[in-house]
Amino acid sequence: MVSLSKLYYEYRRIWKAVRLFLIISGPGIVVMVADNDAGGITTYAATGAKYGYGLIWFLLILVPIAYYVQEMTMRLGVVTKRGHAEAVFMGFGSFWGWFSLLDLILLNWLTLVTEFIGMTAALEIFGVPPYLTVLAVCTLMSIMVIHGRYWTWEKISLFFCAINLIYIPGAFIVKPSVSEIIHTGIIPNLPGGFGNELFFYLMANIGTTIAPWMIYFQQSAVVDKGMKEKDIPWGRTDTLFGAVLTVVVAVFIIIVTGTVLRGVEIESAAQASVMLMKTNEYVGAFMAIGLFDAGLLGAICISLASSWAFGEVFGWAHSLNYKIKEAPWFYGNYFITLFSAGLVVLIPKAPLVLITLFVQVVAVTLLPAALVFLILLLNDKKTMGEYTNTPWQNLVCTTISVGIIILSTLYGVTILFPDAFN
Amino acid sequence: MLKRYLSEAAETIREINRKYETPGIEMSGAVRIALFALRIYLVVLVCLFVYKFITIL
Fold this sequence. Notes:
By secondary structure, chain A is an all-alpha fold. Chain A has 18 helices and no strands. The N and C termini of chain B lie far apart (39 Å). Helix content of chain B is 81%, strand content 0%. Chain B is flat and about 40 Å long. Chain B has a domain at 22-57. The mean pLDDT of chain B is 85. At the A-B interface, helix 5, helix 16 and helix 18 of A face helix 1 and helix 2 of B.
């Protein structure tokens, strides 16, 4: 009888914890899964096609990297109750504030264009014309925000995060060799030896793991959600869960293309989908659906990150908990960013490839600044109090940030000067 | 109307500049070094961009 009551107590305790997690989770999962955006899916698909399962181990390393950076973001937002754009203005003055804000707005807009490129390419495989895709996406994203409730927006976003798992059944359908995955994928190795090409792929994978908009988005999201200091442990779990989820999805994409398209040069995830369809219709369709979903999630987060940042700095009402007439500038910015990026994709002969490359180059101007500001702000005892970075957190986060800055800079320079390291 | 809008926008920007005139973070040696390194990094990067732009033209 005593053990039964103990069991029931344990069950109630765990269920309560799960319910609490379900309430508080959201920003971490959404930001991490959205990190696997259209550009990310292309990178993973190309990595799998080029090196098979050989770089799966490298993706696993990205879990702690993504977690530590985003955990700092979450903590900063919860403690300061300010988004990253406002925090930079307050912490470092208007010069660095304007630099970060304008760079973010430009970068986000360009990235949003690449999300639309991915979405239109994905649905074109099913015969949907690009104008219809842009129209549908803009309508859907408008519906998501007009309710005037953060909660509604977050739950819809989490639904799209769940669709991102579509690559997992795809990987099972292609029947990969589990022993090969373990032997060539899990044990660290450099397929084909270390060379420029491998280095480029490693940099590209790192580059897709941490993007500047993620820092701005998650910090603003935890503020809008109203998370408090006591929620930090749950915020950490949310962020860790998201980091694991995003890498799991990336690994399954690599397994799919590494099994079916090994040795094939892949230029886009849409191209990979078409090629996969020749082998298995469902797997190809899953890849295309996943690509559309990835682009949509990216678009959802990026357009909001820009609106939040503008609202924080200009002092406009900037919350998804406001109706449109209560926060017209916030929503106006959201819609202008969204519609203008969508329209660019529809312009005949628009330099879409150039825009895609330009995103990576502009990112290297903002990412180092965002990471440096993040670490400095997290060390400001006056603001952070007991939540200031510990020496251990500083060691880990500084090492990660320096690594990301070096690799992303080299990646940007490689795109700018393709023969720089030959 | 455009003139009024632009002057209002300029005033808003001036107000933001005044509000955030002084950095809120304690400017310790480490912070100064980090910000200086960031400036150098960005200057080098911009030089690379400009060089690329000129060579493309």
